[in-house]
Design a protein that fits this description.
The protein is mainly beta. Helices cover about 15% and strands about 50% of the residues. Strand 10 (about 235-250) and strand 11 (about 255-270) form a beta hairpin. The protein starts with a strand and ends with a strand.
């Protein structure tokens, strides 16, 4: 018989089935944590612990067994424990629980009441989850309820990755549609500004004569028109990759980890002022969850079509619609209990940005809204607990102010910029109960800052930026690095 013993105090309650949390392990269990004697055969009594168990501990034994009739015992003789009935076990898997009665127990073992000789109960093992004493988890908290934990952490990942994807698309659209001569155009288009000079090489060198001048003008116009057709930047392809380190520091709900995100896209200009395109997006997240001694791994893959329109004077509108599928791997209790969750996420984003020259500095104000919804499927975790389906909505409005300055590095144009964002969460997840018992809900207001550099050469545009979110003492913070590369033709 292979037995796994899970000890966890739950004062005043009888627990039926597998324990869903490991906590407040008694001294007796801690003293023999990891005890195993799987190679021997045992007589009628086998000791599971050799030091006391605390009153209110919930003992759960599960495993596989040959036919036997046995009971819990607190001594080497048949000695039934109050509230611990005799069990007749059939061959196969089993799971039984009882609460340690008032006064505790000096020790715990299993007594075979139908013992006929060595071998009836064999290959016993003991596993204890947890190492310290404490209080039971608060009912309905993110520590005790994996459904609440997934909404609490999943909403953070949903908003972070949706924001990353939509901001990339907004930057691509602005760089593509800004008119030649603007700062954004120097980042993202730039080929039109050189058309006139390139075309002049095809016109004859004329210093006098009306007829020759007229002919030169005609040749120059034809050459310019031809080069504009060839170098119109109608098509563009781009890719972007980013890495973020995130941390939630609220007591009783802390977690931290990494997000790796990527996007690959392309678009077509139907006119100088309108384009449409699509991108493939994805992310991979790895988080450590302190509040339930667990972890979360998330993989995302999806698609996001988008459009852009230059309304007038570089007042540019962009909109995107993203849909992705996700796979979550959630663990708790130091990995002892795990679950696999399938989910789907949808986001819609719209942005509007302008541009104004302030001497040698360019000022770019912008506004953007993101709305996301996620559906998480129900599942059964490794302890046998059925976890219901989950869904939540998120909405954020961002006001941005960006200041940029052009540098000349030989023939390579470089633009540096700083952007400051103010965020308002107009749709937040529901409040949750932390492991401390306190009620928590995500902040309504937050602020971010981003520093970056861009350059363009021969139709190739590259940018690199670093960002810091959650300024001014926010509970949630992140530090990110992102690079983008695009080519227009």
């Amino acid at each position: 018989m292979k037995l796994n013993l899970i000890l966890a105090p739950l004062a005043g309650a009888v627990f039926l089935g597998l324990s869903t949390q490991a906590y407040a392990i008694s001294a007796g269990c801690a003293a023999v944590n990891g005890l195993s004697a799987a190679s021997a055969q045992y007589g009628p009594y086998y000791s599971l612990t050799n030091s006391p168990l605390d009153e209110g501990d919930v003992v759960t034994i599960s495993g596989d067994s040959a036919n036997a009739t046995w009971e819990f015992s607190n001594g080497p003789a048949q000695d039934s424990i109050p509230s611990s009935p005799k069990y007749g076990i059939s061959a196969g898997a089993f799971s039984y629980s009882f609460t340690v009665p008032a006064g505790g127990l000096p020790k715990l073992g299993i007594f075979d009441t139908n013992y006929t000789g060595p071998g009836t109960m064999r290959n016993l093992s003991l596993t204890c989850l947890g190492t310290t004493s404490g209080s039971p988890p608060v009912a309905g908290s993110i520590q005790a309820d994996p459904q609440k934990a997934m909404e609490y952490v999943g909403s953070v990942l949903a908003l972070e990755t949706a924001t990353m994807h939509s901001q990339k698309i907004g930057s691509v659209v602005r760089n593509r549609l800004a008119k030649p001569g603007s700062r954004s155009a120097s980042q993202g288009t730039g080929s039109d500004s050189s058309v006139g000079a390139t075309a002049l090489q095809y016109a004859p060198a004329v210093t006098s004569g009306f007829a020759l001048n007229a002919a030169a003008s005609a040749v120059n116009a034809i050459a310019n028109r031809a080069l504009q057709e060839v170098s119109s930047d109608r098509f563009s392809v781009w890719s972007s990759i980013g890495f973020s380190r995130i941390e939630q520091s609220v007591t009783g709900g802390s977690f931290d980890g990494n997000i790796l995100d990527f996007s690959v896209g392309g678009d077509y200009k139907f006119s100088d002022d309108f384009l449409a395109g699509a991108s493939v997006l994805g992310s991979r997240s790895k988080l450590d969850l302190d509040f339930n001694d667990g972890s979360l791994r998330a993989t995302e893959i999806g698609i996001a079509p988008y459009i852009g329109y230059n309304i007038a004077n570089d007042l540019i509108f962009d909109a995107s619609f993203g849909y992705s599928k996700l796979d979550y791997d959630l663990t708790r209790n130091a990995g002892a209990i795990s679950g696999d969750i399938d989910a789907r996420r949808l986001f819609v984003s719209a942005g509007l940005s302008g541009e104004a020259a302030l001497g040698s500095v360019t000022f770019t104000p912008a506004i953007r809204t993101i709305y996301a919804r996620e559906w998480q499927d129900s599942y059964v975790d490794s302890s046998g607990l059925s976890v219901g389906k989950n869904d939540f909505d998120l909405g954020k409005l961002t006001l941005s102010t960006e200041f940029s300055y052009d540098l000349e590095m030989g023939e390579l144009p470089i633009t540096t910029f700083i952007r400051m964002d103010g965020n308002w969460m107009y749709e937040r997840p529901d409040s949750v109960v932390l492991a401390t018992g306190d009620i928590y809900r995500a902040d309504v207001l937050s602020a971010d800052v981003t520093l970056g550099i861009t350059t363009r050469q021969n139709g190739i545009n590259a940018s690199l930026e670093v960002s810091r979110t959650g300024l001014f003492g926010a509970d949630f913070t992140s530090f990110g690095v992102k690079g983008t590369l695009s080519a227009s033709f």
